[in-house]
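Quick start: load a record and inspect it. Here is Redoxin domain-containing protein:
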Amino acid sequence: MSQLQIIKYEYIAKSTYKSLLLVIFYSFLNLPSFAQKLKSDTTLQFNFSDLSRNKGSVIVFFDTDCPICQKYTRLLKEINQQYSAQGIKVYVVYPHNHVDIAAIRGFKTEYQFDLPIYFDKKQKLLHQLKGSVTPEVFLLNNQGRTIYHGAIDNWFYGLGKSRTKATENYLLNAIDALIKGENIKITYHEPIGCAL
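Running the structure step on this input writes:
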């Protein structure tokens, strides 16, 4: 092998190595914070690295004082119960720096809400996923990629404006498509809720 071929080979090897490092670095920038852990009102913790164990993860930014969130408590419980056996898990995230545990316990008792509520006090997860209102949902696949986000359904079409019942179920449709391995037709629908 000539000196020129050796230099060329070393250059290609170094370039490939640098490119690989850049790909790895930027892929971590585009993914949610895998090292992030959030405490909850129970003994459970939210750890982003655990989401890879689920077929899909529904992250819901949720405020116990928001009237729209209050109306979705039953549906969120039903989604968790109906889909948990199929590998879909619901994570309810409270994205505020002040947490009143007594008020949250009172809310859970009043609405018979048995899902853990995780506290994103520094709003790292909120900013990572770019949430803006409550309730706002993010459906992630087991690689941590958001495949649907926005409104749960079309029950509310404005603040204080709602239909008798939802006629389009964006989140449920996305979950069903994920389970069946189909393409998700609607990947975003503007959420209606309490501004963050």
